[in-house]
Amino acid sequence: MSKPDNSSSPSTSTQSVQESLPASVDDQKRAELLAKARAFLQTPGVNSQDVAARREFLKEKGLSIEDAEQLISECPPPIPPRTYPRPAPSKLPIILYATFKLLLLLTGASVVSAAMYFTYIYPKLAASFGARAKLANHQTGLLKTLQGQTEKARQAQRASDFSSQAPPKEQGENPVVSVEDTTVSLEEGTTAGKTQDDSTPATVPKSDLELLQALRRLKDAIPRRKPTYAATLQDMSDMTALIASKMYAPKVHSPIEGEVRKELRAAKGLLLNRKTFTAVKSTPGTPV
Predict the structure, then answer these.
(1) Rounded to an integer, what distance in angstroms lies between the CA atom of residue 186 and that of residue 184?
(2) Low complexity composition bias: which ranges (predicted)?
């Protein structure tokens, strides 16, 4: 009985060794595969890919879903790339272009406005100022001529007055006159001159009369300046006088207004009497 037992024991040991050898080989292969997969997943190019794509790749390589999930969870999060996005383009050229365009528009507008001004407005202004200057010169010339004519008229009037007042000269030899005769003649001359001046007015030449008539016509033609606020002041004074008269005047009622007032007072008294009568009638009487 011992021999069969001895023969069976080597067979069982050989079977257990044969079963343990493939299991150890599979574990080594699985460990190597996991190490390769872990190293592969930690590369930056693969780590930045999608999780689903990495899971499908690990399944194709022969790993189970649990191993794939474990390896993916062990991987560190992806590091952002060191290259940053390019900055936005500078707006300086756009600003310079807009400024240049604005300056160009302003320059063009100023040139057009200057051309319009010097073509249409400036000639009219120059003509108006020139006409005003000519008118002022003409007026000054007229005033100067008028002044000269008035001076000539005054001189002519003075000459005519002097000629009318001068005594006439007698022809022939000058007789010898005594002192008494000279005094008498002087007194007579003064009285005669006074009477002559009073009786005969000084003669005025025709040119002076025409000049006086022209001056009168010019005076009548010149418009008289009226105060600008005269009408307003007159209206305000009239209004204040009316307000004062209405304020301090006694109140005089017309007969119609007096009758209306009497009727209103009578109606008011009747209404009050009726109210008091209805109030007395509504109160209950006390039993006797």
Answers:
(1) 5
(2) 1-20
Indicate the SS3 state at residue 50: coil
Asked if residue 214 is part of any domain, the answer here is yes
Q: Which two tokens stand for residue 245?
A: 């008269």
pLDDT (tens digit, 9 = 90+) per residue, 230-261?
777 788 888 888 887 776 666 666 778 778 88
Token digits of residue 205? 């030449």
Tell the residue number behind the tokens 């209950």, with chain if given: 284
End-to-end Cα separation, the chain, in angstroms:
154
Interatomic CA distance for residues 249 and 78, integer angstroms: 107
> Is pLDDT above 70 for 198?
no
Q: Which two three-digit tokens encode residue 184? A: 């008498």
186 shares a domain with 135: yes
Output DSSP code: residue 237: H
Helix 179-199 and helix 122-165, axial crossing angle in degrees, nearest 10: 140
Q: How does residue 6 score in pLDDT terms, banded at 50, 70 and 90?
A: very low
Q: Which tokens is 61 given?
A: 């390589």
Of 65, 220, 215, 63, the residue nearest 146 (C-alpha) = 215
- 157 found inside a domain: yes
- CA separation for the pair 267, 259 (Å, rounded): 12
Residues ≥6 apart with Cβ < 8 Å to 205: 156, 160
Pairwise CA distance, residues 97 & 4, whole Å: 108
